[in-house]
Amino acid sequence: MKLDIRQPHNPSEFRDIEILEQMIWQIDHGVDAETMMAIHKSGGVVLLAYDLDADATKPIGFALSFVGLTTEGKVKHHSHMAGVVAEYRDKNVGYLLKLAQREVVLKQGVTTHMTWTCDPLESRNANFNFHKLGATCNTYYVNLYGDMGGINEGLPSDRFQADWFLNSERVKERLQGVKSSVSGNDVKVISSNENRPVDDWTLGAEKVWLEIPANFQELRVNDKELALAWRMVTREVFITAFSEGYAVTDFIFEQGRGYYVLEFI
Fold first, then answer.
1. Rounded to an integer, what distance in angstroms lies between the CA atom of residue 258 and that of residue 265?
2. Which of 23, 75, 174, 210 has its Cβ near the most Cβ atoms within 10 Å?
3. Are 46 and 59 within 8 A, CB to CB?
């Protein structure tokens, strides 16, 4: 597949992003084209991805970020949305979009810190964010967006804030293909019990593996009560862990099960 990733050139391409938002997140509306144009013209980064081997006029993914401030008042980029249509997932499109986003931000020379929010229970995103890109996290937001529709409907919208330090050695190594060498024998493992979260948990180790469902969207559809139980238990674990100085540094798939790596950094 020959991919073209570029910034939008005209108003119709910004409207294309509205359509992508609706398709990817199964929602009726999102960030409107006019707002995205304003972000683009004011130092934000808007990128579209096209498959040149297919319909080169139809975008298959996008990324949107804007300049913001950390709680300490330092400049950062916040990646508000990034997504790829379903038929192009697992084809490296999202990864290449993030690399292009990183390149544009670094060329601006304003900041080397990017953030975004993500659902802590989505294992595919966790693997992408923390294992492949090298992001970290020590910030947890409870029900950040309130009630949401589409694929997020029916559960509290708890979110991680992922921190991507674009020029850090961790990120450079991950982008070069250097992976973590942590094994399950080196850490304390908090596993599920027949696909249910463990209520009786403690941390108490230098490194902790915390299991989450392998497919949370499927679980949410089939058993909303169990999905809510996962939300509430992991909320408590992460808030406690972050308050004690742990951070999420990786995500590991092992024998069909997915684990966050929590450690002190």
1. 21
2. 210
3. no
Other residues' Cβ atoms within 10 Å of the Cβ of residue 187: 19
Over its C-alpha atoms, the chain yields an Rg (Å, rounded) of 19
CA angle in degrees (0–180, nearest 5) for 232-238-243: 130
Is the distance from CB of 217 to CB of 201 less than 8 angstroms? no
Query: For residue 190, which of 209, 213, 206 has the smallest C-alpha distance?
Result: 209
Rounded CA-CA distance 135/120 in Å is: 13
Nearest of 42, 27, 36 to residue 62 by alpha carbon = 36
The answer to whether 50 touches 60, Cβ cutoff 8 Å, is yes
Q: In this structure, are residues 134 and 164 in contact, taking their beta carbons and an 8 Å threshold?
A: yes
pTM above 0.85, yes or no: yes
Q: Which long-range contacts (CB under 8 A, 24 or more apart) does 94-100 make?
A: 94/61, 94/128, 95/128, 95/132, 95/133, 96/3, 96/5, 96/49, 97/5, 97/47, 97/49, 97/61, 97/62, 97/63, 98/63, 98/133, 99/175, 100/5, 100/47, 100/63
Structure tokens given for 264? 């002190």
| pLDDT one-digit tens code per residue, 162-218 | 999 999 999 999 999 887 766 656 689 899 877 899 888 889 899 999 999 999 989
Cβ neighbors of 21 (< 8 A, separation 6 or more) are 27, 29, 30, 31, 81, 83
Residue tagged 């020959």 (tokens): 2
Report the DSSP beta bridge partners of residue 84: 61
- The tally of CA atoms less than 13 A away on the side-chain side of residue 220 is 16
